[in-house]
Amino acid sequence: VIDMFHFVLWGYSFPVFNVADMMIFFGVATLLIQSLLEKVKTQGSYNPLFKS
């Protein structure tokens, strides 16, 4: 599987990046943001499943 890309546009060489690692990063970042937003949304409401 080839998932490394190297682009050269107008004489500028962009860094080589790995698409698989990029998708893992975006997935983890999305889960973290979603978790934080859910915590803010449920803050103040009583939920017996989430005891502090």
Mean pLDDT: 77
Distance from first to last alpha carbon: 46 Å
| Annotation, overall tally of beta strands | 4
Report the radius of gyration as a whole number of Å.
20 Å
Q: How much of the sequence is in beta strands?
A: 15-25%
Report the major sheet: 2 strands, antiparallel
Low-confidence stretches: none
Major sheet strand order:
1-4
> What global shape is seen?
rod-shaped
Please, how many helices?
1
Helical content class: 40-55%
Please provide the ordered H/E string of secondary-structure elements.
Answer: EEEEH
Structural classification: alpha+beta
Question: How would you characterize the overall build of this protein?
Answer:
This protein has 52 residues and is α+β, with helices and mostly antiparallel strands. The chain has a domain at 1-28. It is 46% helix and 15% strand. It contains one helix and four strands. The chain has one helix spanning 19-42, and strands at 4-5, 8-9, 12-13, 17-18. The strands form two sheets. Strands 1-4 form a two-stranded antiparallel sheet. The protein is rod-shaped and about 60 Å long. The model has no long low-confidence stretch (mean pLDDT 77).
Q: What is the topological layout?
A:
Layout: E1 4-5, E2 8-9, E3 12-13, E4 17-18, H1 19-42
Antiparallel strand pairs: 1-4, 2-3
